[in-house]
Amino acid sequence: MASARLRQAFAITGVLGLALSATACGTGSSSNDGGSSNAGSAECAPYENYQGHEGKKVTIYSSIREIEAERLAESWKQFEDCTGIDIDHTGNAEFEAQLPVRVDGGNAPDLAFIPQPGLLQRFAEQGQIKAASAETKAMAEANYPADWLKYSTVNGTFYAAPLGSNVKSFVWYSPAMFQEKGWSVPTTWDDLIKLSDTIADSGIKPWCAGIESGDATGWPATDWIEDLMLRTQTPEVYDQWTTHQIPFNDPRVAEAVDRAGTILKNEKYVNGGFGGVRSIATTAFQDGGLPITQGKCALHRQASFYANQWPEGTKVAEDGDVFAFYFPAIDPAKGKPVLGGGEFVTAFADRPEVQAVQTYLASGEHANSRAKIGDWVSANNKLDLANVANPIDKLSVELLQDDSTVFRFDGSDLMPAAVGAGTFWKGMVEWINGGNTANVLQGIESSWK
Amino acid sequence: MTTTTPPVAAGTQAVDKRSTRVSRVRKRLNTRIATVCAIVIAIVWTIPTFGLFVSSFRPEDQLKTTGWWTFFRDPQFTLQNYQDVLFGQSASSGRLASYFINSLVITVPSVLFPLAFAALAAYALAWINFRGRDWLYIGIFALQIVPLQMALVPLLSFFSRGVSLGGVTLLPAWNLDGAQNFAQVWFAHTCFALPFAVFLLHNFISQLPKDLMEAARVDGATHPRIFRTIVLPLVAPALAAFGIFQFLWVWNDLLVALIFAGGGEGTAPLTVRLAELAGTRGNEWQRLTAGAFVSIVVPLIVFLSLQRYFVRGLLAGSVKG
After folding, report:
1. Is B96:B290 a contact under the CB 8 Å cutoff?
2. Is B182 within 8 Å of A25 when comparing Cβ atoms?
3. Within 10 A of B242 (CB to CB), how many other CB atoms are there?
4. Where is the signal peptide, in residue numbers (chain A) (predicted)?
5. Do A71 and A213 have their domain in common?
6. Which of A162, A325, B38, B208 is deepest in the core (most CB within 10 A)?
7. Rounded to the nearest 10 degrees, how much is the dihedral formed by the CA atoms of A275, A278, A283, A288?
8. Mean pLDDT over each residue of chain A, to the nearest integer
């Protein structure tokens, strides 16, 4: 009798335990602030086309986090208030690895900001992402240069509009130091080399660089190669290189790598503040340009986002402590090649509210709203320069909106991950450590299947 | 545990042999050289943590340009890193407490569920005779070999799509939202912990003297009663040992939480928050030094308060069998 009751008690406890684990915490989230839209007011006029989705929720997944994520959330706050769509953004450091897992597991976000066109293309070929709606496509075509849109077009279908951008073709320098020594900012390749020689003669090594970046060690050097591919070759050859229509060890690629070597592997030029050529491989990319502020180095080629790395209190401006100039073209007649990167707003769902948000993010309203909050660059041509406060961002936007600019996306993000985020990085480390150009390129080529 | 062993000749012999072996080992390890070696190893192993600890009090520019040992030559002290981590600079990062609670909400059930299920399963596998018992045990044992990473996508699909076979839905999708995601994390951690937990506890429970069980049966005790009044108190060290293992593993876990909890503030544990602290481009990595020490506090308390059982549990598990 007692045993039967005991058994019963055990059974109940077991069932309760299971039930608890299955239905736990029915409270749910209380973040739903939809349903209180004031669609009629004047400030909501720009969002008229996005109405009719009140109380709906759109999830976004990206690699943007911390302060930048907060600014992003702030940028679409008014859109949320006016349309009643609740945008739930989650940023994660493991984005690139997690997104395929979530997609394969059937738990894809509605929208993802994908910074690698190569990954976007893979999703498109597997049929896992949705083509952009006609409105999104029209909005993107009106606001972004064709150079950008081709990266999110796979087999003739347009998938995603760009969002933020960064410009990689920059050389950081110290305006104060330049003024003091009487150096001027070079506008041609020859001037740049001449300046480097002048600086080298003055007793400091002109260039500093660092390519150590944890698992991603080597990537800053791939940017060097890409920038020089764009400068020694035509943009068409660059496209053939990133799509593997020409082999990785093509003589034209070797020419670009050797050209990069005239600076990066020149003991006379590098590595200001750190040591010899090999110290490039062991210097963290975050620290790579810091000797400029200590007067131990004069030039550092790195993207616009390097602005965040300067020590607190460093004034980043044309008349400040540090600033950047455009990495000059070798043959100015061919236009201004600009290497850059950016995210693409990719949709995994085609619900109308998701498409509305996708269209909104491609619009000038969002670009300006985000730019006003600060630290933002976009290739969106509706972006008003007056809204871009930060001098380096302003310079980037000017460069992106310039008609003579020939924009190309960071090549290592276009290549298959095994190459672009694998052997290319490792090959560059080997190359810096004394590896011969032909062998290194041969090694990368043989890894590209 | 040996005190409950009836004085069977073979048993005492084994105990004697073991104790002499233990004392011989103890004697041999008790030399001066061994002590010096142990101290040296302890120091070498502690240096990285110590460096991290010193770093967490250094100002950002110092931390980023010089090694932690420069602290002793040129001591500069700041609490800024802890200030950033605990109270944040911006509106949303000042809520470390909520991630702390998320971590607890994830960890406590993720320790208790596998403990409860594994103890029941281990008892059944050890003391209830049923057909295929050994094969079942071997199967559970073998499951330990499956890497967790392999199960992530199928498990996620199980939650978000449900299970259907040939168009027939066997189990519906869970369709969880917000805080309900905790259930997924508990489920995942419980699944991943069970094979090892069952194995560990089975080793313990099956070593309990058979006479004890038989005596209980003769007195009319049922399985639930034996389990509750005899087995559970006797394997308490093992339960504690596994509890610590599982606690540390779940507390430090990032992967499972990332995938099953979602990264939102409502459900993400401390580890997810720590990974974010360095900023989008990793330029605020000085905060990680302080973050590591903030997150270490709870596991340290758990470990120190239970380490007695931990050592006892480990020893008992290894020597027996």
Report:
1. no
2. yes
3. 27
4. 1-24
5. no
6. A162
7. 70
8. 87
* pLDDT above 80 (res A250): yes
Q: Give the count of domains, chain A.
A: 2
* Residue A121 falls inside a structural domain: yes
Asked if residue A2 belongs to a domain, the reply is: no
Distance CA B125, CA B198 (A): 9
Q: Are the beta carbons of A314 and A331 closer than 8 angstroms?
A: no
Residues A260 and A383 in one domain: no
Nearest to A270 by CA among A291, A295, A297: A297
Q: Which residues of B touch A10 (CB under 8 A)?
A: 224
Residue B53 lies in a domain: no
Contacts of B231 in chain A (CB under 8 A): none
Range of the domain at A267: 170-339+409-447
**In a domain? residue B262:** yes
Token pair 């080629």 is found at A301
- A299: number of Cβ within 10 Å: 27
- Shared domain for A152 and A64, answered yes or no, is yes
Q: A439 to chain B nearest CA, in Å?
A: 32
A360 with A77: CB under 8 angstroms? no
Q: Is B304's pLDDT higher than 80? A: yes
Quick one: A335 and A345 in the same domain? no
Residue B24 lies in a domain: no
Q: Supply the pLDDT for residue B88.
A: 66
The secondary element (H helix, E strand) that includes residue A405 is: strand A405-409
d(CA B51, CA B71): 10
Above 80 in pLDDT, residue A10?
Answer: no
Give the pairing type, strands A57-62 and A86-91: parallel
Which residue range is the domain that position B275 belongs to? 91-319
Both A321 and A181 in one domain: the answer is yes
Count other C-beta atoms under 10 Å from residue A38's C-beta: 10
State which residue of chain B sits closest to A31, comparing Cα positions.
Answer: B178
The answer to whether the CB atoms of B276 and A92 lie below 8 A apart is yes
Structural domain total, chain B: 1
| In the block, residue with structure tokens 């320790």 | B111
Residue of B92, B191, B281 for testing the chain A interface, max A β-carbons within 10 Å: B281
Structure-model confidence comparison of residues A271 and B310, the more confident one: A271
| Secondary structure element (H or E) that encloses residue A422, with its range | none
Same domain, A210 and A127: no
* Residue A326 included in any domain: yes
Closest CA to A58 of A364, A370, A344, A348: A348
pLDDT per residue over B30-59, tens digit each?
A: 788 888 999 999 999 999 999 999 999 988
A269 domain-assigned: yes
Q: Residues A52, A66: one domain?
A: yes
Q: Rounded to two decimals, what is the model's pTM?
A: 0.80
